From TrEMBL:
SUPFAM superfamilies: 6-phosphogluconate dehydrogenase C-terminal domain-like, NAD(P)-binding Rossmann-fold domains, UDP-glucose/GDP-mannose dehydrogenase C-terminal domain
InterPro entries listed in its UniProt record: 6-PGluconate_DH-like_C_sf, NAD(P)-bd_dom_sf, UDP-Glc/GDP-Man, UDP-Glc/GDP-Man_DH_C, UDP-Glc/GDP-Man_DH_C_sf, UDP-Glc/GDP-Man_DH_dimer, UDP-Glc/GDP-Man_DH_N, UDP_ManNAc/GlcNAc_DH
PANTHER family: UDP-N-ACETYL-D-MANNOSAMINE DEHYDROGENASE (PTHR43491:SF1)
Organism: Corynebacterium simulans
UDP-glucose/GDP-mannose dehydrogenase C-terminal domain boundaries: 312-410
Domain of life: Bacteria
Keywords in alphabetical order: NAD, Oxidoreductase
One of the Pfam families matching this protein, by short name: UDPG_MGDP_dh
Keyword Zinc: no
Name listed for the protein in its UniProt record: Nucleotide sugar dehydrogenase family protein
Family to which this protein belongs: Belongs to the UDP-glucose/GDP-mannose dehydrogenase family.
Length: 415
């Protein structure tokens, strides 16, 4: 008999709420993370202060004893792997964390058990995981053929609304065989109120990266058009508004680039695997990466033209109304501006974080950068630049300081 019903490997933004939900539904769950510091933070009740309701949800399961935490796995009937899958410096799939998880769980699998890979991956990675587990069990002198089931179930959640979306979003599940698919369907049916969409494992793997690649391409179109509009002296907001009056046109809002852990990463999984067939996806990635550099050049000119000695940078997150800085173009732009103008004092305002740590540590170490999470932290500046359109910035009046408000592209605020 296994020690736990379910073991979740990786307690990040998806793994932790997933573990808590299964525990809430009555399963005995072991949450595993290699970072003891991360486990201490979870136990303290501050696992993710920016995710509404998550801390309380996790603490409820911990207190009830249905969720336990450890740095190493134990035997379980089901293993869910939710570890990071970044890209390599060559923009390929980095399977380091997945292989580490495979080696870690290999001794603790039970006959007929289910292993679900939730991490975003390229096609073929779930089968690669199964091979890695078999090889590790053979190296340990354990039977590699114990009827294990393997499936992929990609996460599809929006930071800031994770619990609701885990419960209510449709889920795609695909196993390496029919039995694996059925087992994964039964697992997620325990809590998922959306539809469980069954398919093959490779289709499931490709679905997530196609979803995010589609979004990347659409954002790239908007960003490219905005650069054309700027050259022609045309207001991008007005241009998009008018074009979208056509009943079959829906141009997205241009921005400073694309960040986060999904849209800026996932297309590379397809591009690197099929370089000769993905010219559009590669171009979209290049456009969205270059948009940040384009914005920095325009903002630099704006700072020089105003002879500004104090500048407020408003927002560091990769998207509005959250505190996630991963791959954030606003953060990259802030670093570039602070390095370009060492004699300019930059007041950085990000209301959704408490300090320039983690992903922002390099910015925080720059001597000409000062941070505030409060709306009153700007003080006197020559101009303010809105890099991220956080809703709280709508209530920020700069009139009392007689400060110009610029948008990410260096133009005066259009509001």
């Amino acid at each position: 008999m296994a020690d736990f019903d379910l073991c979740v490997m990786g307690l990040g933004y998806v793994g932790l709420p997933t573990a808590a939900i299964f525990a809430h539904e009555g399963l005995s769950v072991l949450g595993v993370d290699v970072s003891e510091q991360r486990l201490d933070i979870i136990r303290s009740g501050h696992s993710d202060d920016a995710e509404p309701g998550l801390n309380e949800f996790v603490q409820e399961s911990l207190t009830a004893g249905r969720l336990q935490l450890a740095v190493a796995p134990s035997t379980a009937d089901v293993f869910i792997i939710a570890v990071p899958t970044p890209v390599t410096p060559e923009q390929g799939y980095d399977n380091t964390h997945v292989l580490s998880a495979a080696k870690a769980i290999a001794p603790y699998l039970v006959p007929g058990g289910l292993v679900v890979l939730e991490s975003t991956i390229p096609p073929g990675a779930t089968e690669g995981l199964a091979d890695a587990v078999k090889q590790q069990r053979s190296r340990l002198g354990l039977d590699p053929e114990i009827g294990l089931k393997y499936a992929h179930c990609p996460e599809r959640v929006l930071p800031g609304n994770v619990l609701h979306e885990l419960y209510h979003n449709d889920r795609v599940v695909g196993g390496i065989d029919d039995a694996s698919t059925v087992a994964a369907e039964e697992l997620y049916s325990r809590f998922c109120k959306g539809d469980i969409l069954k398919t093959t494992v490779r289709t499931a793997e490709l679905t997530k990266v196609v979803e995010n690649s589609y979004r990347d391409v659409n954002i790239a179109f908007a960003n490219e058009i905005s650069m054309v509009a700027a050259k022609m002296g045309v207001d991008e907001t007005e241009l998009v508004r008018l074009a979208n009056q056509h009943p079959r046109v829906n141009i997205l809002t241009p921005g400073i680039g694309v960040g986060g852990h999904c849209i800026s990463v996932d297309p590379w999984f397809v591009i690197s695997a099929f370089p000769d067939d993905t010219a559009l996806l590669r171009t979209a990635r290049e456009v969205n990466e270059s948009k940040t550099q384009w914005a920095v050049a325009r903002l630099s000119r704006a700072i020089v033209e105003r002879r500004a000695s104090k500048v407020a940078l408003m927002g560091l997150a990769y998207k509005p109304n959250i505190g996630d800085l991963r791959n954030s173009p606003a953060l990259k732009a802030s670093e570039a501006l602070a390095m370009t103008f060492p004699d300019v004092e930059f007041q950085v305002l990000e209301p959704h974080i408490t300090g320039l740590e983690g992903a922002a540590h390099r910015l925080g170490n720059m001597p000409n950068v000062h941070f505030s999470s409060g709306l009153d932290g700007i003080g006197y500046v020559d101009c303010a630049i809105r890099l991220v359109r956080h809703q709280v910035f709508d209530d920020l009046s700069l009139e009392k300081w007689k400060v110009e408000l610029l948008e990410y592209d260096g133009t005066l605020s259009r509001e």
